[in-house]
């Protein structure tokens, strides 16, 4: 936001790459949230629980609007394939915390049901693979939009 304000003031012409990558990671995390809620949590807890109240903002509006903003509306710094790893870093960090708190220490309830039947060893790599796929997809779309704008 600071870079965007400076652009509007004419003090900058682009958003710093570090901020672009930070937002990229946020968008990928929010997209994982959206699809986790849609595909896993709504069938378990119901739509009213997941999309009611603040859930509508956290689980639908923020992910969808951040995706649209990042891919279609913002200044388009080209993202490399290696940037896709940066895009999933928060997922990996949160996954490590979740694993330690649910599986190792038992301090958290397995709210996401990722350890149903003791199958965390299947779910964790699957979530990382899905996150990487999302990261690559967001990168692909953003770069395509960037290329079309140059034409």
Describe the structure.
This protein is mainly α and 151 residues long. It is elongated, with a radius of gyration of 17 Å. It has helices at 2-8, 17-45, 47-51, 54-73, 83-104, 120-150. Helix 2 (17-45) crosses helix 6 and helix 4 (54-73) packs across helix 6. 75% of the residues lie in helices and 0% in strands. It has six helices and no strands.
Brief summary:
This protein is mainly α and 151 residues long.
Which descriptors apply to this entry?
0% strand; single chain; 151 residues; mainly alpha; elongated
How many helical stretches?
A: 6
What is the residue-mean pLDDT, rounded to a whole number? 93
What global shape is seen?
Answer: elongated
Low-confidence stretches: none
Span of the ends, CA to CA: 28 Å
Task: Write the topology of this structure.
Blueprint: H1 2-8, H2 17-45, H3 47-51, H4 54-73, H5 83-104, H6 120-150
């Amino acid at each position: 936001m600071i870079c965007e304000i400076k652009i509007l003031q004419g003090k900058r012409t682009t958003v710093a790459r570090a901020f672009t990558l930070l937002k990229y990671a946020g968008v990928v995390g929010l997209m994982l949230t959206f699809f986790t809620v849609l595909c896993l949590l709504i069938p378990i807890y119901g739509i009213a629980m997941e999309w009611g109240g603040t859930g509508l903002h956290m689980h639908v509006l923020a992910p969808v609007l951040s995706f649209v903003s990042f891919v279609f509306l913002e200044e388009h710094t080209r993202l490399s394939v290696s940037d896709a790893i940066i895009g999933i870093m928060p997922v990996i960090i949160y996954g490590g915390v979740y694993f330690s708190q649910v599986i190792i220490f038992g301090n958290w309830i397995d709210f996401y049901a990722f350890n149903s039947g003791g199958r965390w060893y299947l779910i964790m790599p699957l979530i990382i693979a899905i996150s990487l796929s999302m990261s690559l997809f967001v990168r692909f779309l953003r770069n395509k939009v960037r290329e079309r704008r140059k034409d």
